[in-house]
Design a protein that fits this description.
flat; mainly alpha; 67% helix; 289 residues; 3 domains
Length: 289
């Protein structure tokens, strides 16, 4: 068959995303391969297909560039396991160390500024909450006249003040609750820092948890000292018991006499003479048993 008897078929089978039109498929005649176009028509169809192919490739490249630009940049790698700021700093050239030192100064200064600003805001919030303004607003919010007279200037003024106070109360009440929560959290963190065994010692942690569960009205500090007091009492009792055991062991060891020795002479048999008082006591106790 003559090469001009059919229009060329599209060979690129690239996937088409939803919402896009495949330019090559659109430029391909519907009856391609089943007709005999003339020479001029054939050439025009080939040109159309080539143009459509180039258009589609350009569109795909543009979409790839846009997708790459829209991707979030990967986060820079942080310190690896076993690394620290100081270890990395010590292995850098002098000019890099100067830059790192300046960066640390800037970070420290910024952290101090933020901490000072936070303390200032907390102090302002605390002063506002302790000023009694919230209680005053609650009182004013309920001062609207019961027998309201729209022609009475005093009644109108009281109504306005009541509405304003009610609105301010709605605004300040969440702030007051948040301030109380922040103070409670700060007290907890400070207490935990001052008494690390509250976190590190499983016995203390368990005891405090059980105490708070059994008495919800109990404060953390009171529960902690209650548990610590019980543990201290138990430790003292254990120390006393150990002292009694050692004393008894020493007394019994002093009365032991080997055969052939003068009665009353304090001697120890060779198998126990190098042991501690508690071990001697346990040995003697097992013999008596």
């Amino acid at each position: 068959m003559d090469e001009q008897t059919a229009a060329p078929e599209a060979t690129d089978t690239a996937a088409v995303e939803p919402g896009h039109v495949d330019e090559v498929a659109a430029a391909t005649p519907e009856n391609a391969g089943r007709r005999n176009p003339n020479s001029n028509q054939y050439k025009q169809e080939v040109e159309n297909l080539l143009t459509a192919y180039e258009t589609r490739k350009a569109r795909q490249l543009q979409e790839q560039r846009e997708a790459k630009e829209s991707e979030p940049e990967p986060e820079p790698e942080g310190l690896r396991e076993g690394e620290s700021w100081d270890s990395v700093y010590s292995n850098q050239p002098e000019e890099v160390q100067r830059a790192m030192a300046e960066m640390r100064k800037m970070m420290t200064r910024k952290t101090q500024e933020l901490a000072a600003e936070k303390r200032k805001i907390e102090a302002q919030n605390k002063a506002l909450m302790e000023s009694g303004v919230l209680d005053s607003l609650k009182e004013q919010a309920g001062n609207a006249p019961e027998d309201f007279d729209p022609f009475n200037a005093d009644h109108i003024q009281q109504l306005i003040e009541s509405k304003v106070a009610s609105r301010l109360q709605q605004i300040l009440e969440p702030l007051h609750k948040k301030n109380q929560q922040s103070e409670a959290q700060a007290r907890y963190e400070n207490f935990k820092s001052a008494h690390p065994d509250l976190v590190d010692d499983s016995n203390v942690k368990k005891g405090v948890y059980e105490a708070l569960q059994s008495d919800p009205s109990l404060k953390l500090e009171a529960a902690y000292w209650m548990v610590k007091g019980k543990m201290l009492t138990a430790e003292r009792q254990l120390d006393n018991d150990r002292a009694v055991v050692r004393r008894r062991a020493q007394q019994r060891a002093a009365l032991i006499t080997d055969r052939g020795q003068r009665p009353g002479k304090a001697v120890l048999s060779p198998d126990i003479k190098d042991k501690s008082a508690y071990e001697i006591y346990q040995t003697l106790k097992s013999r008596n048993d």
